[in-house]
Amino acid sequence: MPSIRIELFIHAPAEVIFDLARSIDIHAKSTAQTRERPIAGRTSGLIELGETVTWEAIHFGIKQQLTAKITEMERPSYFVDEQVRGAFKSFKHTHEFIQAEGGRTRMIDIFEYSSPMGVLGILADKWFLEAYMRDFLLQRNLYIKSEAEKAMKEK
Predict the structure, then answer these.
(1) For residue 121, pLDDT beyond 70
(2) Average predicted confidence (pLDDT) for the chain
(3) Share of the chain above pLDDT 90, in %
(4) How far apart are the first and last CA of the chain?
């Protein structure tokens, strides 16, 4: 099972980044390259513990839907979303926010997933899927970083 870990330091309080990371609206803006949009469940605002969101997006030229549920949450330290339905066999996505010195927060994103189709899925991971997902998550996290730091400058 591949595991992708991305860490960023962001010049903003954990509370601000926590809310940006669980914002449906920010998620849609940060994934504009795949035309990701919420179509069911929580479709705007801040997703909460126990809630689901169904996303529709285009990946690899194919329109897909994925439903994720918030299965754990402790504000402003972490939350976890897990696939309920979608293209992966399964995934668990952990978002951690650790307040650091100097008004910074260490944001840790851990995405663990299992691809469908057995050996073919494992080969897809090695050839392109893991790199694609790493880039997708990094771009999303950089967007959150930009929004959080912009909000701090405006204060």
Answers:
(1) no
(2) 93
(3) 75
(4) 42
* The 3-state secondary structure of the chain, one letter per residue: CCEEEEEEEECCCHHHHHHHHCEHHHHHHHCHHHCCEEEEECCCCECCCCCEEEEEEEECCEEEEEEEEEEEEECCCEEEEEEEECCCCEEEEEEEEEECHHHCEEEEEEEEEECCCHHHHHHHHHHHHHHHHHHHHHHHHHHHHHHHHHHHHHC
Instruction: Tell me the three state secondary structure of residue 20.
Output: helix
Instruction: Supply the range of the domain harboring residue 31.
Output: 3-154
Q: How many domains does the chain contain in total? A: 1
Q: Is the pLDDT reported for residue 155 higher than 80? A: no
CATH number at residue 76: 3.30.530.20
